[in-house]
Design goal:
It is built from 27 helices and 26 strands. By secondary structure, the chain is of the alpha/beta class. The longest helix has 23 residues.
Amino acid sequence: MNGFLPISKQDMTDRGWYYCDFLIVTGDAYVDHPSFGTAIISRVLEDAGYKVAILSQPDFRDEHDFLEMGRPRYAVLINGGNIDSMVAHYTSAKKRRSDDAYTPGGVGGKRPDRAVTVYSMLARRAFPETPVYLGGIEASLRRFAHYDYWADRVMPSILESTGADGVMFGMSEHSVVELANNLKHGKKGADACKGVRGTAYMVHDTDDLEYDAVECPSYEDVCASKPDYARSVKIQYDEQDAVRGKAILQRHGKRILVQNPPAKPLTTEEMDHVYALPYMRTYHPSYEVLGGVPAIQEVQFSIIHNRGCFGACNFCALAFHQGRYIQVRSHESVIEEAKKITQMPGFKGYIHDVGGPTANFRFPACKKQEKYGCCKDKRCLFPTTCQNIEADHTDYLELLRELRRIEGVKKVFVRSGLRYDYMMAEKNDAFFRELVEHHISGQLKVAPEHMSDNALYYMGKPSFKVYEQFRERYARINEKLGRKQYLVPYLMSSHPGATLDDAIMLAQYLNRVGYMPEQVQDFYPTPGTLSTAMYYTEIDPRTMKPVFVAKTPEDKAMQRALLQWRRPDKRPIVIAALKKAHREDLIGFGRECLIRPGRGSDQRMPGSKQHSVSRHGVSNGGRQQITTAVILRLITASTVHRTANDRLHVRHRASRIRVKKPAGQNRKRKNNFIRNFLRRLSSILSELRKAVFFYDKTYFSNASCTSGAAADRLRQCRAENHGSRNRQPEHG
């Protein structure tokens, strides 16, 4: 018998169990690590004295797997997994994903679409008389009537569609134990949820409510009226506070959905206890032959030190799920976990992360929150940092220092999200300096999301000026430390409110700073966010004013392509976008231009029949004679890079040119042709090297704009190179 909870009848027999009290059904593989919700809830119930069995990724074609371990004594608890099953299966473009990091071997298709709904129906079929309760992020964010992006319609509460007895939303440690105790003492179905914070259930009347309540528009109303939908979401969002929040009612026909107020936050002592439970910190050994579970790689040597986020970005569901109040673990608890990590197989001295939803939050935004909760109509960091906020990284900094001193630890990284606006609110640079010096490696990832203040307003993010100030301070600290490290900004395209002009502004900025993101995240309308409400209704729930939304595939593709304008495959879309916005001034050869004008057919949108044109101007599909002009065009388009001794060299790509030999030539003549071509290319490169200047280092920084002096040098060099391009080479 291993230390994992039972996953089969044989495991139960080995423990001497004839039954289990609770059967937890999950869409993920069974990973007993405190980063996985199933692991935490199962260990909390076990700690409370209950027998818990795990049914992981059961066959969803029938109920056979549900019957294997027998009928649970009290209830079946169901979650879709660590992430929403629809997000796990589909991209933001609704394309099916081929893999699943939460499945053994990373294989896709082991859980169904809308996993919670499917598992609930199977559980009802297997155990008709046994209560069924839902939890996890998939069910939690669907507790009210909600817009479903994948079906493109408003759907009822998941309780209505599944017939389950209740939903536990949020992190649920308090809720699940209280619910279990109610079931143990004879309460059944929805009655077991009454009075339990952090739960929702359906009733026929509201005569015996235990909390003050507000009512939001009914399911029928939000289906018929988008303004009613927007108002409903705003009411739900405002009441998600454990201190001041009220119960929320929403009618579904003859029944009424009741959401009790959120559960009280865990105290530091309670958090310490939860994370000290006997987790195995890895996946079940039965998965080893299948290749393990890829998702463990990111968290196996990482530590969660907090919960909650008072940043409250509009596109993030954390405020609706974990809440805005910060919960933290003690230093002693975190250090004890770190020591356990150092003893684990495969540990090489690197703690990959000490974080949470937002890594640098260690206490509530202000003292007022402890007594009165988070402000109903205000945000701590938006549109500007609240004057009452207490920005202080002293405690977090000391925690990181203590972790660095542990024997066997070589490096402690911070890879979770950092709120740079919160960092900028602190006048002391001590944390910033140590973060740069000790806790990153080459690059720091942050999330400005956009640079247009218009787009940032609808995202609920601070002004772009704050990011620019942060970037400048980051560069200064690196310079003082003698480090060459870069910022990697996360960017989002086609968020509600973000227009094509906003996307062009962002592309221009990226062009100025010399940065092109490898990845761009399209906005993904998942349930439980204000941004999703904006996407569906085209109304801002905060103001009830209209919002522009890029909904068509064409509009989304244009905004995304503008953030990656240098990619050859994006060229036709970028040109189409610039023409649509009447910004043809950005198509040309000027420094501020995003793209060079093409020749005729290369400006068509994807799907038209044409030969593709490379960035060197050489046709990949048609014929083009290799001439001096072509060679010079190649050289002009060659990338300039800086070597270790700060010299600049021209790297040509001769291999990208296709050499076409005249028909009928033999191999010998072909080889001579290639040799002559390479000699000519070498001669031209030799002459052009004489014209290359040594540029100011700041121009080639990945994270900074070109200085004025460097820009002047660049223009001068381009002018001289232009003269050399017009000169005929010798032996031409």
